[in-house]
Amino acid sequence: MNTKKVKLKNPNISELLDLKKKITNVFTGNAEEAGKLIVALIDKMAGDEMEIDLTALADGIMEIINSMTEDKIPQAINDQIVKQISLKMESIKNSINPKEKLTNKVKNEIAAEILKNPKSEVKNAVEKVLVKNGITGLTFEEIIDYEVATKWEDLNPLYAKFHQTYFTQFHYNDDDWKTAEMFAKGWKETNTGVKVIQELTLKLKTIVPRFVYKKQELPLEDLVRLDRNGRQSEFLSWLNREIDMILVNSIVIAILIGDNINTGQNRIVSFDPIATVWDSVTNSFILKTTPDNWTSIRNYTGTAPTVQDVREMCDLIFNPNSKEKILIMNQKLLTKLSEFRYGTGGTVMYRMKEEMAGQFGVSDIYVTDALDSVTDLAAMVIIPDGYWINEDIYISVDYPTWETNRHSYQKERMIGGTTRDLLSTAILTKA
User: Fold this and answer.
1) What is the pTM of this model?
2) Most exposed of 107, 200, 334, 381 (fewest Cβ within 10 Å)?
3) β-pairing, 326-329 with 425-430?
């Protein structure tokens, strides 16, 4: 690979300041140290009469980023800085040799590979496209002109907290540990006979993964226009994130309250809902009215629940290992419960969400209007790590349908889940 160099007799101070400002704005908090090192490197290599080795500059910046631990450089920050660096390097490179710009054809091929491949394989797929088209002297970071699809965990913060497992079956025991059959026994030297056998009654619970999919289509005429305008890569980037976002949000709703949006064979049924049970009479998921091994129920009276009602529901959770607890409710109820006044006739004010979480005895509050579709369900609290999800395979394909001149984009995940920890959830319902 030829090393590209350029001598800046009079560096564009405004451009350099703009680049350094972007880096400083992105690298904050624990990542501030990396930002300072990168800015210092740019200053060192951009002096008067300095011959800038573009490859060395890029390698130096990436070395600083890679030397930081993941807690100091989260993936989102890493991706953003790589993008900013790539844009800068592309600008300088083009000023040296404009003929090295990527054609729209190659960009579209790269975009197609990004859509079809898992994130871990994108780089290799893109490099194969470059080799096929005889393009050399460009790094992967210089090629990509938009961000690769965001991880599921970034698209829904609650989904990120669920327990991912390779197991589809597990045993549990729901006997009362305060009974003589379950409680441990003592022994001393004067005891006679043999020790008591304490038998456990184990029960089996199974996760049955099923396919959950999202499919979208686009007329081929629209794709042709996007291709000619060089915008296909931008469109595929948006479509990739959109499909993933709909998939993960649909799964979270199915976990919390079941899928009452779809009907018949389109219904998502591979997740055991926390707040509802399947009713064969109405062919829908209905609100739980009887506690079970997994979910406790707290009823409230009146027109709306109080802070005390919510706190007492949260305290129903059995949490011997002090795992993270998440309260789930809509914004309207959270606003009402956080309202307060200083003195009679004072101005209405509202406590911060973090303060309310402390009052309820939970780690965080997940705000969503998903619960509104279940009559008489006001709120729920869960230990996310107590809900286990098993994902088998992931499919991402795109294909044309010439009979109708349309192009389909489809993603599927063979996935399912169920509550693993006993009494790790609770719901607040109207009496």
Assistant:
1) 0.64
2) 200
3) unpaired
